[in-house]
Amino acid sequence: MTAANLIDRSERERIARHLAGSVSAPALVLDVGWVNGLGAVRSLARAGVRVLALDHRPSALGLRSRHALPVLCPDPNLEQERFATFLTELVELLPSPAPIFPTHDDGLAAVARAAGSLGGGLLYPFPDWQRLEPLQRKRFQLEHATEIGVAIPATRYPSSAAEARAAVEELGLPLLVKPSEPIGFRLAFQRQAFRCETLAELDDAYAKAEPFVPMLQEVVRGPDSALYTVGSYLDRNGEALGVFCGRKLRQTPPGVGTCRVGESLWLPDLVISSLELLRACEFVGLSQVELKRDERDGSYKLMEINPRLWQWHTLSDACGVNLPLIAYRDLTGDPPSPCTSEGARKRWAITLLAGERTVFPRPPYVEAVFSVRDPKPGLVHLARWGLKKLRALKRTKRSAS
Ligand SMILES: Nc1ncnc2c1ncn2[C@@H]1O[C@H](COP(=O)(O)OP(=O)(O)OP(=O)(O)O)[C@@H](O)[C@H]1O
Ligand SMILES: [Mg+2]
């Protein structure tokens, strides 16, 4: 297949039919494999935006949503050139410039890199590549936080295994070995960091993480419910048009993981310092600033800035701050009045996860996958969960007999 026909005729016609008759710009959501992308599709479509859901995996959950046209694309991380060509072809089919919402780090980097060659065909809720590239590095974020007085976990940047061992003298154990550049690390190890309790574990973790610029970080003490999020959209002038504040109540896996249950909770000082940090980094667009409250001294220490929508952003929408829509409106020349989640008290949860206990928080709560209005992704998720459970049961029976 040549680069000229990545999108074939019947696909072009399907896209044209989906967009026909709409006067407003469509939106593209990239990477809809899980609740982040699925949530963005639903938040935009609920407001009447025509959405194209893009993913390279035919199995992606969000491709089942009735709220978007499913479109298969090349893998933004492993096929970067084909992905860029695909975007060039797609842009030609759009009736007007369309906001694009990458929902994971690799897709975000791929779109930002391709942006220069796409003319004005797409609109971006994130800074240009020159500013985004350093911002995707944790070291850059931590250094800016320190400059403006936001607390950070004690962190060292060893350049050899021996220096890593020496850093333990200062940081103590346990500690985390984290990549400063997380995209490749996540692909290689399907996790965000290694927690090390001993020097032997540190040696092993450092060796594995070495290609990804590892850093050593103290483990901030406290439960997972001490992980706070400030989610926002900043316009081109740095004005916050939408702000959410909340915290995780439970992560999976515990300790170093992703949100399983979260709640909204407004902490004004945290909102102020997070927005200040974003502005110090010259950030514009959608982001999550995550901080953990250290139970030893009550300080809030920066975990990271995610320069994109985060896993549980639909809780913000439930609190009246529909961040994808706010970004869409601002980018298409119809900026809404600023709003915040202050005063809203809601919860969010992923109830069913394969291999894990079912979690039902106290109702009412926002369910991440199941939706009466958009049932198919939930049914597919349920079927996959059931199949995995069945297989696990069979394995247990076999090993018992
Ligand atoms: N220094 C630390 N102390 C305690 N917990 C930490 C620390 N660093 C990271 N974590 C935990 O690990 C999680 C993931 O870490 P981090 O956000 O740095 O990785 P990531 O790969 O960028 O994750 P994401 O997929 O959310 O973008 C955090 O949400 C937090 O729960
Ligand atoms: Mg991150």
| Structural class estimated from helices and strands | alpha/beta
In terms of DSSP E residues, the strand content is 15-25%
Helix content: 25-40%
The coarse silhouette is globular
Number of domains: 3
| Bound ions, cofactors and other small molecules, one mention each | adenosine-5'-triphosphate, magnesium ion
Highest-level CATH class of the largest domain: Alpha Beta
Measured on Cα atoms, how large is the radius of gyration? 21 Å
Let me know the average pLDDT.
95
Largest sheet descriptor: 8 strands, mixed
Q: What's the name of the CATH homologous superfamily of the largest domain?
A: ATP-grasp fold, B domain
What separation lies between the terminal Cα atoms?
Answer: 51 Å
* SSE pattern, N- to C-terminal: HEHEEHEHEHHEHEHEHEEEEHEEHHEEEH
Given as residue ranges, the uncertain stretches (5+ residues, pLDDT < 50) are none
- Give me the CATH architecture of the largest domain, please: 2-Layer Sandwich
DSSP strand count:
17
